[in-house]
Amino acid sequence: MASFDSLLDKDGVRLTVDDAIATVTLTNPAKRNAQSPALWRALAEAGRLLPGTVRVVVLRAEGKSFSAGLDRRAFTPEGFDGEPSFIDLARGTDAELDAAIAEYQEGFTWWRRSDIVSIAAVQGHAIGAGFQLALACDLRVVADDVQFAMRETGLGLVPDLTGTHPLVGLVGYARALEICATGRFVHAEEAQRSGLANIAVPADQLDATVGELAAALLAAPRDALVETKALLQGAVGRTYEEQRAAERGAQARRLRDLAGLSD
After folding, report:
1. 251 alpha carbon, distance to own chain's centre
2. Which H or E run includes 152?
3. How far apart (Å, rounded) are the C-alpha atoms in residues 138 and 112?
4. What is the pLDDT of residues 172-188, one digit of tens each?
5. Taking a C-beta distance cutoff of 8 angstroms, is the pair 147, 196 a contact?
6. What are phi and psi of 211, to 5 degrees?
7. CA distances from 164 to 13, 90, 124, 158, 188 (A)
8. Cα 173 from Cα 187, distance rounded (Å)
9. What is the pLDDT of residue 85?
10. Which residues, 6+ apart, have CB-to-CB distance to 260 below 8 Å?
């Protein structure tokens, strides 16, 4: 994707905007875009900085890997410069530990806002936190060399960066459990077949395919897409009759708007 106005470039995250399309890029290919608390804060800041003109957000990564997951320095006594190590965090109170994890999660929560559609362009390794970051997006386009894996359980941890809810929603409880418990790789063909990926393409076609998908999304009227996304997001938590009512309400709003009768 081309770079235009840069609104953020720090801690391994760059945000650029071209009118209705924003691109968030992971920019530390030398470390396979390994993640840290500073990167998570930068991701959260990118979400806060999005202009109101943005309708589609593309998440991509430089280098051969999307993200190899958490930087292992988090598990050392030294941790990261200027950051408490995870060992230090574990010594805190329950409230302090909960607050720290909640802050980390903020970099993963804004991607499903109703006013945008987010697309993860994923190549190579997307492991642990990298897998969860791809899952945070609405849609995933993957290269044929993609390797998803959830390795937290094997490290004695659990996935805690908001990935469990979308994973179960996409592949079902039993498959999600098997993926997390074994830590195995999920490759492109299975990812597309199981619903983890919307599209799988050769690596050299990844950016072009994401661009075509973004253009198709922008072709739909913004308000109709926002309403449709909200309608679909709420469907799982509603009964059939509740969803019927939600459809009627959403359509009434759209018809009044089209007729110029909205408040």
Report:
1. 28
2. none
3. 6
4. 999 999 999 999 999 99
5. no
6. -60, -40
7. 24, 22, 21, 9, 20
8. 19
9. 83
10. none
User: Measured between alpha carbons, how far is 204 from 157 in angstroms, rounded to an integer?
Assistant: 35
User: Residue 80 gets which letter from DSSP?
Assistant: S
Q: How far apart are CA 144 and CA 225, in angstroms?
A: 29
Mean pLDDT computed over 117-130: 98
HSE, CB side, 13 Å, CA atoms: give it for residue 79: 13
Helical packing angle, 94-109 and 37-49, nearest 10°: 50
Instruction: Give residue-wise pLDDT tens across range 30-54.
Output: 999 999 999 999 999 999 999 999 9
Which two tokens mark 244? 């019927």
Instruction: Give the N- to C-terminal CA distance of the chain in Å, as an integer.
Output: 39
Task: Give whole-number Cα distances, 179 to 22, 199, 223, 247, in Å.
Answer: 31, 20, 37, 34
15/5 Cα distance (integer angstroms) = 8
Closest CA relative to residue 200, chosen from 145, 162, 240, 130: 145
Both tokens assigned to 257: 């708007």
Query: In 3D, which of 23, 22, 25 has the Cα closest to residue 54?
Result: 22
- The model carries a pTM of 0.94
pLDDT at position 242 is 98
Q: What are phi and psi of 94, to 5 degrees?
A: -60, -40
Q: Pinpoint the alpha helices (H) of the chain.
A: 37-49, 86-90, 94-109, 129-136, 164-171, 173-182, 188-194, 206-218, 222-235, 240-258
pLDDT at 125 > cutoff 60: yes
